[in-house]
Amino acid sequence: MLTKITNIDSFEKLLDSKEFFFFLKHSNTCPISAGAFEEFQKFHYERDIDGYYLIVQDHRELSNYISEKYDIKHESPQAFYFDNSEVKWHDSHNKISLTNLASVED
Predict the structure, then answer these.
(1) Alpha-carbon distance 69 to 46, whole Å?
(2) 80 torsion bin: left (phi>0), alpha (psi -120 to 50), beta (else)
């Protein structure tokens, strides 16, 4: 199941409560982002694991916060794998695919 995260407090609680998880910055106006979101959904559905996302246009403060906190240039779409509150992997655009997401877990 995918859960939308809408603010910094919720994101910080997520970091505190989950040892590892995938997170996606999604644009609801970009066709590339729509494709990445579909791949992100498939990945989580097939593995029956929880995933998290934000919509950049609606939650810009949180999007900027993640970029600044982890010193990673903002892109959209942009996927992250967090492990123990640290970014262990991130990629963007057409590199957000079922295959690439699965390779992070291996």
Answers:
(1) 31
(2) beta
Angle, helices 31-47/98-105, rounded to nearest 10 degrees? 50
Per DSSP bridges, beta strands 78-83 and 20-26 are: antiparallel
What is the distance between the alpha carbons of residues 24 and 86, in angstroms, rounded to a whole number? Answer: 15
CA 50 – CA 105 distance, rounded (Å): 14
CA distance 5 to 20: 16
Of 56, 106, 47, 48, which Cα lies nearest the Cα of 79? Answer: 56
Cut 0.90: pTM above it: yes
How do residues 39-80 score in pLDDT, each as one tens digit?
Answer: 999 999 999 999 999 999 999 999 999 999 999 999 999 999
